[in-house]
Amino acid sequence: MISNSSHPVTTQAALTAEDVNVYYGSNLAVRNVFLEIPKNRVVAFIGPSGCGKSTILRCFNRMNDLIPGARVEGKITFKGQNLYAKGIDPVETRRYIGMVFQKPNPFPKTIYENIAFGARINGYQGNMDELVERSLRGAALWDEVKDKLKGSGLALSGGQQQRLCIARAIAVEPEVILMDEPCSALDPISTLRVEELIHELKQQYTIVIVTHNMQQASRVSDLTAFYNAEATETGNKIGYLVEYDQTQTIFHNPTEKATQEYVSGRFG
Amino acid sequence: MTTEFPSTPTSDLWKPNRQRSQRVELIVKLIFGAFAFVSIVTTLGIIETLIFETFKFFQEVSLWQFLTDDKWTPLFKSAKFGIFVLISATVMTSTIAILVALPLGLLSAICLSEYATPKVRGILKPALEILAGVPTVVYGYFALLFVTPLLQKFVPGLQGFNALSAGMVLGIMITPLVASLSEDAIYSVPRSLRDGAYALGATKRETITSVVLPAALSGIVSSLILAISRAIGETMIVTLAAGQNPRLGLNPLVPVMTMTAFIVQVSLGDTPAGSLAYKTIYAVGMTLFTITLALNVFSFWFVRRFREKYE
């Protein structure tokens, strides 16, 4: 059994995971994850397929609740509250912990309505036009779309769509943004723009990003968590957190051999 | 025709009969093509007959009369041919049908695809399918002998034959169609869109009404239009339960005669072929066909115009 190296905390934690286990049906998918996400930092989750990094990411905003049969054990703390305590409304947590998905998924609505939707359902009372502009500027998309706010969000290019989804996420003023391989469907130039955007967003938000691209992890993140998977006798894969430290350390001087092998491209 | 490549040491072991397989391919293509062609020929044949007989009808009755007369009495001595008498009845029964089928069908589609647990779904879906399999003549008697007497307790002045109960039962008949096609449309809205809405803090209801239903709109509308077409063309229920009295107006409480009911009436009678009365059924048939064709064209246009393309 490999121990988790704990990371020295310098700033306040935005999210903490304590002994999180996730089950799909009766299968354990990820086990014993301890993790602390510091405020205003970018944390990257890396690891081979099936290691549970996306599963853990989806625990933070209770998106796993939507998967039939998924069950989360353990404790995830956000603002002093255990998100999995009784009486916590997952809908409420998702307003504070936003999410950007693997494939851009703008709603089949106008660009304006894509942004305004989240604000409306959360009872935003302020000026909607201002919020839409602020959010689009925040996602570095305003200049490209300001003349076609009434046009369909689906008419944009893939990279623009993904920035629209980021704009949509920040429009509800979350504290944390979870990104599940946000660039995997984008071309290199669009990827670069999203990465630049992540750097800017860090000033205001805490970001957790799952990525298969190790260069991306080393470019955008302050901290990196490396997950790995082990196969059980029945052939199921159980993911676990191998090592979590400063990105520099993970990539250049990791403690665990598996991490060393993964970041140097020897497997995964 | 064979292609020659340079021979290799094992060439002698490989002797595919290319010529034969090419011939078989061609024959298979012709057979499949012929079967596909049958449906086109049939459609063309129907349209040709309709147009031909309708044309002969309009040589005797002017289009103006057909569209403006306020009576439909083609079998009387003083024959009148006001098609709107029949259209008004058809419109009325179909409208009542869609008023029943839209909420019933759409809500059960939403329930089936979004809310139902596998267990509930396992009961609901077959129940709907059974509804779709009930012969229309059974629906007709159900309307005439059960729904009408029941309605008469609440609706004063409801006659034994009426558009109201025929329309309502017609609505029940087309509900499975609306439900099943709408469910397909709702179900095919990608999961990623729902996730996007949930991730913004939308509740299930908000996700369904603001994201899923608008995204499925084109499919839902086309299912509705298909259902309207079915209701307009449906014969047995309206013939049995709505009556045989051509009457202009939109009063659902009295007996009326729909276009399809008229065609039944004339087809079952001893109207000699070639007579004017005989030709009227083609004129009415042509009108029916034109209306459903227009609906289908509209539905086709609507789906193309409003369909959202997802990968």
Automatic annotation (TrEMBL), chain A:
Record bears the keyword Transport: yes
A Pfam family assignment: ABC_tran
Gene Ontology CC: one annotated term: membrane
Keyword ATP-binding: yes
TM segment ranges: none
CDD domains: ABC_PstB_phosphate_transporter
SUPFAM superfamilies to which the protein is assigned, alphabetical: P-loop containing nucleoside triphosphate hydrolases
SMART domains xref list: AAA
The protein's name in its UniProt record: Phosphate ABC transporter ATP-binding protein
Taxonomic source organism: Zarconia navalis LEGE 11467
UniProtKB/TrEMBL annotation, chain B:
Domain ABC transmembrane type-1, residue spans: 87-299
Primary location group: membrane
Membrane topology: Multi-pass membrane protein
Record SUPFAM superfamilies: MetI-like (SSF161098)
GO biological process: phosphate ion transport
Keywords, in A-Z order: Cell membrane, Membrane, Phosphate transport, Transmembrane, Transmembrane helix, Transport
Residue stretches spanning the membrane: 26-47, 81-110, 130-151, 163-182, 208-228, 280-303
Stored InterPro entries: MetI-like (IPR000515), MetI-like_sf (IPR035906), Phosphate_PstC (IPR011864)
Subcellular location: Cell membrane; Membrane
Domain of life (superkingdom): Bacteria
Molecular function as annotated in GO: phosphate transmembrane transporter activity
Pfam family, one: BPD_transp_1
One cellular component term from this protein's GO annotations in UniProt: plasma membrane
Annotated function: Part of the binding-protein-dependent transport system for phosphate; probably responsible for the translocation of the substrate across the membrane.
Family: Belongs to the binding-protein-dependent transport system permease family. CysTW subfamily.
Listed name of the protein: Phosphate transport system permease protein
Gene name, Swiss-Prot/TrEMBL: pstC
